[in-house]
Target: NTP transferase domain-containing protein
Amino acid sequence: MTSPLPAAVTAILLAGARPIPDPLAQAAGVAVKPLVPVGGEPMINRPARALLDHPAIGQVVILTQRADLFAADPATAWLADHPRVRFEKGGQGIASSLLALLEGGDVPFPILMTTADHVLLDRAMLDQFVAEASGADVAVAMVERATLLARYPQSRRTWLKFRDGWWSGANIFWFGSDKAGAIVSLWQEVEQDRKKGWKILAAFGPFALLGALLRILTLRSGMARIGRKFGLVARLVAMDSPEACIDADKPEDVMLIEAILQR
Model:
């Protein structure tokens, strides 16, 4: 059973740059990846519009190292002028940037965080995620492999295996209260190993690691156990839409996204 929709959710849109040059940005001749054209416009525009058009979203905070680039580009200048959008300075890591933002005290909970390369983000995804995440201190959107491959068998993702399937992140996160700070702090510690699933699991304790390796944990029960460890409510949101875990990370992703947009 889901909780009533909150009146105003703060959305954080990650639009930063990695320390090393991004291949998509280099190929497109733009300074940062969020400005890479996808479907005829900079990729950041579509998730930004999806957030601003959703009735549960209040303000949109764009976290980036180079706000000036978006204001200077005619295709994204509308973001700098929008009354419900503000830019905040990001650092080199997502978790450290988020912690700094939360410690500033002027970003109200609940918070929904997503990424500028989540080009296919839409109303249906946000409806499901906000409804199912509401009431949790922390929630993470994931897509089960069968859901994705049933429609897009050619798509390649990073998967974590549990007893209830193979799961991939959908780049949508929920921070429902200040209790989430403990999880974000841990995230900061393992951020450099985000593609190495066993290291992330190990950070939550040996039971979580062994549970995944021996397949004695479902992802849902694992999330609940992690929540209890930190004294909070942690929840998995298993997304219905396979498009929820397709982001614009590689050239083949962009080709797939543009084909979906054309349909």
